[in-house]
Amino acid sequence: MKHKLVPVAAALLTALTSYNVAAESATDILTDGWEIHGYGSMNYRMNDGQSFDTEFGKPDYKTAGTYGKSSAQVEFVLKKHTEFANGVYSDFIVRAEYGNGDSYYYSSPGSQKWNNSAQFEIKEAYVALGNLPYLPADTEIWSGRRFLNRNASGMSGEFWKQSSGTGLGFETKFNDGQRGGIAIVSADPEAGSLDGVPPAQGGIADGDRTTLSSLDFYYYGVKGLGGSLDFDLKVMHQANKDGDAADSGVGVGVTYNTSYYGFDGWSQTGLTYGKGLASNRGLNFGSWNSAPDSDESVFFTTYGVANLGTNWQMGSEITWFQALDTLFGAEDLQRGLIAVRPTYKVNDNFRWEFTASYGYENGKEGYWGRTGDAVESQILNGEVAAVFTVNADYFGRPQIKPYVSHIKADDAASAGHLGIKDGDNETIFGVHAEIWF
C-alpha cells in the first residue's frame, strides 16, 4: 500500500509545482523602463527697460501673440512602464513643473523664492493598470493626481477641456478605435491658504474645506462627418457652500476632429454648455470652478493647422464665449477671438511667422464696475517673428524666436484692461525660446 502511494504523491507534487511555475510566469516582467518627456518656455520681454507681468489679455481671448509671461517655465514628465507575461501592464506617471506664470528674471543668489508661488511643483502623480484579466479586454484603471482629457485652443493656448485634480477612473477601448470612461476628480480651492491668506502669501489650509468634485462620463472616437466625435458629460458638486454661490453644476460638450475644413491639415472644434460650477467653458474643471449660481454659458472654439504648399502653413483659431445669464459674475458677458498665423519655410532651419488677431469683449453696463468706454473692448494685434529652429515645420522644436508685436485697442480704457499704461496701443519686443521633447 505504501508503494502505491508514491506515484500519487509524485503526481500531486508535479501538479503543484507546475501550478506555481505557471502562476509565477504570468507575472514575469517582459519589458520595464522609463520614458522622459517635457517642455520648456523661456520668454525674454522688456518694456521701458524693465520686465513686466501682463499677458495683454491673451488668457481672456483678446490677443494671440507670443505673450506667455513665464520667464523660465520647465516641465518634466517621467513615465515608468512595465509589461508582464500575462498581458497586464502598469504605468507610473509623474509630471513636475517649475516657473509657470512667474515673470521675474532671476539671478543666482541661492534660494531665489521667498514665497510659495510658482516653485517646483508636482502637477501629476498617478498609477494606471491595464489588461487586468478579470476586467474587460483593453481596460485601464487609474488613481492619483492628474490632468484628465485635456484640450487647448490652438493660438490662445487656453485649456478649455480638462479635469485637473486627484481621483480615480475606469476606461475601456473598443474594436473600432472608440474609448469610453468614467472618472471622479476632486480639487480643493483652499489648498495652500490659511485664514483667508492666499497661497501666494504663504497660507496653509484651515477651517471647513469647500472641496470641488466632478463626475466625468466620456465616450471618444465615434466615427462620423468625415472625422470623429468625442462626447463629454461632467456633473459637479462643491461642499460647504451657501448663499448665492453655486454648489452644483453640469457641463456637456462635443468635440469634432477632422481635416482642416476639407483641406490638407487638421482641425478640432468644440461646442460646450455649462451651468453653475460648470459655467467655465462647460468642461474645464479644477480648483478655479467656484461660481455664482446664476452663471451659465455656451462656448465654441475651432482651430487647426493647414498645409498650404511646400513652404506655407497656417494656424488659425475662432473662439466665442457667451454668458446666458451671468459669467464670472458679469451679466451678459461676451468674449470672442479670431486669429491666424501663416508661416513661411525659408529652409529646414529657418521660417518666418506672422500673427494677426481680433479680440472682442462686451457685457451689460456696469459689469465689474465698468462704464463708458470700458464696457466694450475691441483689440487688434499684429506680430512678426523670425524663427531659428532645428526643424522649420509649424510644430518644429526646439526653436528661438525673436518677435515684435503691436497691440491696438479701440480706446485707452480698453487698453488699460490689457495692462497698457499709456494710450491705446503698445509695441512689444521679445525673444521666445521653446522646446518639446
UniProtKB/TrEMBL annotation:
Q: Which UniProt keywords apply?
A: Cell outer membrane, Ion transport, Membrane, Porin, Signal, Transmembrane, Transmembrane beta strand, Transport
- Does the keyword Signal belong to this entry? yes
Signal peptide range: 1-22
Give any GO molecular function from the UniProt entry: porin activity
Query: Is Cell inner membrane tagged as a keyword?
Result: no
Subcellular localization is given as:
Cell outer membrane
Q: What is one process in the GO biological process aspect for this record?
A: polysaccharide transport
Gene Ontology cellular component list: cell outer membrane; pore complex
User: Which superkingdom, per the lineage?
Assistant: Bacteria
Checking InterPro entries in the record gives: G_neg_Bact_CarbUptk_Porin, Porin_LamB, Porin_LamB_sf
How is this protein situated with respect to the membrane?
A: Multi-pass membrane protein
The UniProt family comment states: Belongs to the porin LamB (TC 1.B.3) family.
Protein name, as recorded:
Maltoporin
Tell me which species this is from.
Photobacterium aphoticum
